Amino acid sequence: MSKERNRQSWDTLSKCYQSEHIISLEDVHYGPHAPGERSLGLIGNVRGLDVLEIGCGGGQNSIVLMKWGAKSATGIDQSEAQLEYARKLAQKEKVVVSFLQADMEDLHVFRNSTFDLVVSSHAFDYAENLDRVFQETARVLRKGGRFVFCMLNPIWRVVGTALESEDLAKVQAYFGEEAEKWSWATSDGQSIGAFETVPWRFEQIINGVIQSGLRIDRVVEPRGYNGNEAEEIGVESIPYRDAYPSEKFLALIRRIPFTIIISAKKS
Length: 267
Ligand SMILES: C[S@@+](CC[C@H](N)C(=O)[O-])C[C@H]1O[C@@H](n2cnc3c(N)ncnc32)[C@H](O)[C@@H]1O
Hints:
seven-stranded mixed sheet
């Protein structure tokens, strides 16, 4: 698993990623074509809270949380290109967010008990040591603080990707131990970057949070919106969507959860 290669790959992909995804600046998103915070209500009132977003990418969720009244927001990411995009976006949206380059496994730049809320969307699959991420999160959270994150649902990783490619020989091992190598396929058939993500299992995700001392109080596996629902709620209110989604992908996210969301508390 090469973090450095992931970092470089995100630098290379950032421009395309941001232009091929329509990510809300009005609702916190939990991944592609899934209900956002306005529907799920996992975070609740953020007025006056100090917020940290881990693996913030283009910073959209931090920006939304500031618009919703957070006292401060800090976004960390390893990719300078993603952070650069985030800084410009925050300026355009007229909110102040502090965007820093940092590794999610090492939050030493923050003192203990600095934040009331830590959020993260689809970044923890890149963690080399997920336990360390949870322990660092627990350390920087204040007592009573909340931690809401989502990552790739292991079911999607194993089954969804195979069905998507129609090649059952490509079914990934659930108990895979090695980092998985892949490239980002753009809508026009290009392949960008050389990413490596770790095949985290449910037990590792959930036990890691428990061992960090945080208390899990809700788990959500959101079902993707279908075309009719999207029309009913208005496609622009889906907080994260592909600019060019394939029919097959939209059908699959109705059958297999793409994301798992976990909400935990420090008591
Ligand atoms: C799929 S993107 C998600 C970005 C953003 N949260 C969103 O939902 O659009 C994953 C992000 O995690 C970041 N990332 C990967 N490994 C990281 C690490 N070790 N530390 C901090 N950020 C990392 C990448 O640079 C990338 O911006």
